[in-house]
């Protein structure tokens, strides 16, 4: 069957059709997005300027913040602008690129969270060999692998969509382009493609979650052999990681670990992992991490001293 694509533009229904609710959402989500950008940029600046980049945990935290910025920026700006727009439209190419970007950065974040769990496992369970196992060269290779894995996942998701014919209608019941809502508009049977998409996304999401669950279970069991101070410090660090994992994997599992169907709650669930989680990550990692807080204090004191000297 020859591909027929009469659709050049898609229309989003958005989060709400109530103008007053959209105005409130515009203010709230604008603040959330700005907080996400500033918080993650502050994490990156602190890691780089605070001489923390040489430590594997902060090396990965730096890239997690970078991915959070990219991930939210693929979706949030368009969504925020659309909240005040009468016609919430996006071109076919723009839709495909948004779909690619959301899956690229979303899956890369999953891989980085898995790597961070492995890093904590080595640090707590094999402390004497930590710097040997997690040397800079290995960290660079692991990070490259995370980006490549995210890219391959996104290419598969995009390839599933671009081969489909779209001949109308062109209204997407969502606020951004994702695979499930877009598949519903294709004028052909998408059952097989939906199964492949669910299997692909499910492998990434569920596989990552299982690895994380095993890693943190082993870590928590091994803490029984640690001193009271060692347990407190390890629990503080792992607690922040576990909080991020729960917030990110919970909604992702709801969205992608099911067949090609959509629910009314999908949009609100998607808001949580596309807007709210990237904003909360910096707060979680700074409030529960003494080294990051100390590095921020040193940077602030350095800035104050520079201002005083200039005067």
Helix proportion of residues, in percent? over 70%
Distance between termini? Answer: 74 Å
CATH class: Mainly Alpha
Q: Tell me the CATH topology.
A: Rhopdopsin 7-helix transmembrane proteins
The coarse silhouette is: globular
How do the SSEs run, as a string of H and E? EHHEHHHEHHHHH
What is the subunit organization of this protein? single chain
| Number of domain units | 1
Most strands sheet: 3 strands, mixed
Find the count of extended strands (DSSP E, 2+ residues).
3
Provide the gyration radius in Å: 21 Å
**pLDDT averaged over residues:** 82
Number of helices: 10
CATH architecture: Up-down Bundle
Helix/strand class = mainly alpha
CATH superfamily: Rhodopsin 7-helix transmembrane proteins
Low-confidence parts: none
User: Could you tell me the strand content as a percent range?
Assistant: under 5%
Write structural notes for this entry.
The protein is mainly alpha-helical. 75% of the residues lie in helices and 3% in strands. The protein contains ten helices and three strands; from the N terminus they run βααβαααβααααα. Helix 2 runs antiparallel to helix 3, helix 2 (56-82) runs antiparallel to helix 9 (266-287) and helix 5 (136-162) packs antiparallel against helix 7. The mean pLDDT is 82.
